[in-house]
Amino acid sequence: MLTIDALNQLGCNTDDGLTRCMGNEAFYFKLIGRVVDDENFQALEDAVAAKDLDAAFDAAHSLKGVLGNLALTPIYEPVYELTELLREKKDIDYTEYLKTISEKRSELAGLLR
Amino acid sequence: MNRSTDLYVDGKRRILVADDEMINRELLNNILCDEYDVLMAEDGEMAYEVIRQNRNTLSLILLDLMMPKLNGLDLLSRLKETPDLKGIPVIVLTSDQASEVESLVRGAADFIPKPYPQPDVIRARISRSIELAEDRQIISATERDELTGLYSYEYFSRYAEQFDKYHPNDWRKRLGVSVPVSVNLSRAEMYDPALVDTFEKITSETGTTAKDIYLEITESAYVRDADQIVDRVKELRDHGFFIEMDDFGSGYSSLNMISELPIDALKLDMMFIRNAFDKQNDTRMISIVIDIADCLGVPVIAEGVETEEQYLALKKLGCTIIQGYYFSKPVPAEEFEKFLVENNA
Question: Is ipTM strictly over 0.90?
Answer without folding.
Answer: yes
